[in-house]
């Protein structure tokens, strides 16, 4: 492995690296450095935890000459506000010995303050596409000096529906620029995107996605249903000694809230939840508390957790079994980082067994099955999705049991099919129907 010395990086960056305690570049850093320095477009396939942020920041900062000019020269696009904050923080650590100016741009906060920050002059802008686009069209940001654009976590960005903003932003950038992209997975969507905007990119790929990580022990429990999974989880989490810092993945925000309510009753302030319907402050606070180990358990959806730099996770619990095997890889990759040992536990139902098999096929590895503990109560209670649908005798199109296709439907489509019984449950829980909230959620999502 090369050393940082071999990369011939500047004194200022060397000092910062020494401060951070990094001994040698990670594989993605070693391999991206010369590609990015050469000025060609680059596609990096690397997951969070591989050191990919510094993989693009090192050569960018190495190349960035001191300047007093107002307009930004580097643009870094990331999918979530949390990531903006994280990347800004990393750049600040690196820029400690040089006078790098960096501004973070993200939605959900005062736009005028961000306009003022940009107007003061900046070298680097780190932004989510939605808010950045708002600032560009209001002419608060000038793009003419942009020399390099980094699009990080492109797969997540496209999943979140940012294609429109992303395309618009790229079309407004100067033609003569370097494009750098990082994605954890190579999907058709990502491929189309590369073809549209990149010129003869060099691909740098580390660890073929789907390779099980050596320092993660993987176990699986076959469990009856959602509430029984919750009972099992409660038992596991009582072992505070081993389950020191636990990330619990759920498939969507509805499950996140449901599970959080159950765990909250039992574990109180030891548990927090993040998903896209929580306010930004709440999310930031939850992540901070989890990082500083004020909370031991964090319940999260895939999109919220991806890209977050969470250290020393002892356990990743897959409360559901992801339909896309690669999402399982992303989830478990949040533990066992930086040479630490980690444990991943998968809770799967009969219906999820096929998804589990697909994961094992991808990894070419059989997850060790553990016996379901006798002391855990098997719940007969079913969630709405688990319940057989009510059959209207005169309606031939009704199906008797909610099959897999039903589960695959998008949240908003599900709502349309949910008859009286769902509304009654929600009404009971919240005292009034919640349909309005969901409409607003969709609006917010578009605006991001
Ligand atoms: P990332 O994949 O960019 O989210 O980085 C994951 C973590 O690895 C971050 O906490 C970095 O501080 C850390 N890191 C990055 N580069 C190195 C390195 N060369 N040696 C040790 N740790 C690193």
Give the low-confidence spans: 399-448
List the strand order in the largest sheet. Answer: 3-4-2-5-6-1-7
Question: Could you give me the name of the CATH homologous superfamily of the largest domain?
Answer: P-loop containing nucleotide triphosphate hydrolases
Question: So how many helices?
Answer: 19
- CATH-defined fold name of the largest domain: Rossmann fold
Helical percentage: 40-55%
Quickly name the level 1 CATH class of the largest domain. Answer: Alpha Beta
Structural class: alpha/beta
Number of strands: 14
**What is the mean pLDDT?**
84
Give the count of structural domains. Answer: 2
Summarize the biggest pleated sheet. 7 strands, parallel
Bound molecules: adenosine monophosphate
Q: Identify the CATH architecture of the largest domain.
A: 3-Layer(aba) Sandwich
Radius of gyration: 23 Å
Q: Which outline best applies? A: globular
C-alpha termini separation: 41 Å
Proportion of residues in β-strands: 5-15%
Family: Belongs to the DEAD box helicase family.
GO cellular component, one term: cytosol
Protein name: DEAD/DEAH box helicase
Keywords: ATP-binding, Helicase, Hydrolase, Nucleotide-binding
Structure description:
The chain is of the alpha/beta class. The protein has 2 domains: 4-206, P-loop containing nucleotide triphosphate hydrolases (Rossmann fold); 216-369, P-loop containing nucleotide triphosphate hydrolases (Rossmann fold). The protein has 19 helices and 14 strands. The strands form 2 sheets. Strands 3-4-2-5-6-1-7 form a 7-stranded parallel beta sheet, with helices on both faces. Strand 12, helix 14 (325-332) and strand 13 (342-348) form a beta-alpha-beta unit. The longest helix is centred in the middle third of the chain and has 15 residues, at 253-267. It is globular. The structure holds adenosine monophosphate.
């Amino acid at each position: 492995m090369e050393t940082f010395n071999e990369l011939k990086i500047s004194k200022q960056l060397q000092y910062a690296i020494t401060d951070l305690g990094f001994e040698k570049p990670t594989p993605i850093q070693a391999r991206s450095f010369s590609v990015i320095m050469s000025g060609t477009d680059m596609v990096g396939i690397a997951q969070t935890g591989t050191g990919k942020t510094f993989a693009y920041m090192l050569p960018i900062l190495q190349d960035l000459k001191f300047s007093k000019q107002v307009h930004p020269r580097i643009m870094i696009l990331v999918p979530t506000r949390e990531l903006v904050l994280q990347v800004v923080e990393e750049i600040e650590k690196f820029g400690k010995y040089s006078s790098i100016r960096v501004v973070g741009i993200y939605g959900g906060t005062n736009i005028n303050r961000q306009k003022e920050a940009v107007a003061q002059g900046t070298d680097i802008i780190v932004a989510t596409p939605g808010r950045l686009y708002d600032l560009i069209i209001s002419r608060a940001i000038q793009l003419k000096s942009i020399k390099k654009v980094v699009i990080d976590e492109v797969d997540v960005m496209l999943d979140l529906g940012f294609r429109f903003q992303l395309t618009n932003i790229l079309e407004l950038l100067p033609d003569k620029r370097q494009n750098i992209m990082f994605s954890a997975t190579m999907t058709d969507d990502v491929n189309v995107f590369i073809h549209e905007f990149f010129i003869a990119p060099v691909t740098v790929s580390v660890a073929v996605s789907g390779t099980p990580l050596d320092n993660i022990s993987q176990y699986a429990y076959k469990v009856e249903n959602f509430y029984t999974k919750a009972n099992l989880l409660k038992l596991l989490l009582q072992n505070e000694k081993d389950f020191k810092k636990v990330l619990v993945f759920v498939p969507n925000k509805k499950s996140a809230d449901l599970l959080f309510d159950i765990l909250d009753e039992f574990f109180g302030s030891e548990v927090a939840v993040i998903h896209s319907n929580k306010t930004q402050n709440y999310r930031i606070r939850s992540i901070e508390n989890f990082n500083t180990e004020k909370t031991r358990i964090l319940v999260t959806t895939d999109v919220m957790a991806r890209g977050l730099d969470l250290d020393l996770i002892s356990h990743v619990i897959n409360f559901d079994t992801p339909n896309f095997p690669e999402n399982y890889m992303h989830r478990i990759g949040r533990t066992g980082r930086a040479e630490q040992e980690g444990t991943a536990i998968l809770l799967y139902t009969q219906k999820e067994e096929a998804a589990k098999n697909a994961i094992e096929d991808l990894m070419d590895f059989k997850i060790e099955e553990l016996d379901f503990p006798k002391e855990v109560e098997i719940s007969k209670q079913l969630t709405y999705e688990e319940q057989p649908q009510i059959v209207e005798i005169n309606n031939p199109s009704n199906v008797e049991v909610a099959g897999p296709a039903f589960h695959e439907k998008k949240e908003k489509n599900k709502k349309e099919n949910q008859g009286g019984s769902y509304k009654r449950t929600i009404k009971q829980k919240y005292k009034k129907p919640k349909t309005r909230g969901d409409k607003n959620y969709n609006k917010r999502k578009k605006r991001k």
